[in-house]
């Protein structure tokens, strides 16, 4: 089995991901690449892209006192076929200081086909100075599938607030689901 990557694993490079899910490709792609063939690399990229889905994950921190967190936040997307595994939300595309009060952060998550998105698990590791977090909602857009789902939360992920949970399983709000041409 051949699992080429050809992508950065760095917060400050490419799409900011430090973990990648790799898909196996035909042996012929790997053998061609040893000849330094740029065209094969492009074809390889398309081959891998065809087997994966890119999700744009928007996370809204509530506008409450001490709502932001410095803890490390993670998410798992669960579909009808599979799940993404735990994905760290490290590099927000719009805010250097992520998960601050009243702000929306945007992340990219790539995964093999997990089927129709059914639920998510989101939480944090409770590490850092200010760890409690008030999560307003999560929105997950899959442009290649033409679906955008909203996962309302409106609760604390804090050991000393609400029910003390620091991770939650959230289901999409059917009425807030948008379908469009992929």
Task: Explain this structure.
It holds the Pfam family PLAT. This is LOXH1 protein. The protein has helices spanning 27-33, 38-50, and strands at 52-61, 73-79, 87-88, 104-112, 117-124, 133-142, 147-157, 167-170, 178-179. Helix 1 (27-33) runs antiparallel to helix 2. The strands form two sheets. It has a five-stranded antiparallel beta sheet. A four-stranded antiparallel beta sheet has the order 3-2-5-8, with no helix packed on it. The mean pLDDT is 86. It has a domain at 53-179: Sandwich (Lipoxygenase-1). By secondary structure, the chain is mainly beta.
SSE layout:
Blueprint: H1 27-33, H2 38-50, E1 52-61, E2 73-79, E3 87-88, E4 104-112, E5 117-124, E6 133-142, E7 147-157, E8 167-170, E9 178-179
Antiparallel strand pairs: 1-4, 1-6, 2-3, 2-5, 5-8, 6-7, 7-9
Organism: Galbula dea
Domain PLAT: 1-23, 53-171
Protein name: LOXH1 protein
């Amino acid at each position: 089995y051949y699992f080429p990557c050809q992508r950065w694993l760095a917060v400050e490079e490419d799409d900011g991901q430090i973990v990648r899910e790799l898909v196996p490709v035909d042996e012929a792609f790997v053998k061609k690449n040893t000849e330094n063939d740029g065209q094969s690399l492009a074809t390889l990229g398309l081959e891998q892209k065809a087997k994966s889905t890119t999700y744009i994950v928007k996370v809204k921190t509530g506008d409450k006192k001490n709502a932001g967190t410095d803890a490390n936040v993670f998410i798992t997307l669960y579909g009808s076929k599979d799940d993404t595994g735990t994905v760290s939300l490290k590099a927000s595309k719009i805010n250097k200081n992520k998960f601050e009060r009243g702000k929306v952060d945007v992340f990219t998550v790539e995964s093999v086909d997990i089927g129709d998105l059914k639920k998510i698990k989101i939480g944090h590791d409770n590490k850092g100075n200010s760890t409690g977090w008030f999560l307003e909602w999560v929105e997950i857009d899959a442009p290649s599938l033409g679906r955008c789902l909203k996962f309302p939360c409106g609760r604390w992920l804090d050991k000393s607030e609400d029910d003390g949970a620091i991770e939650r399983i959230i289901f999409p709000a059917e009425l807030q689901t948008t379908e469009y041409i992929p």
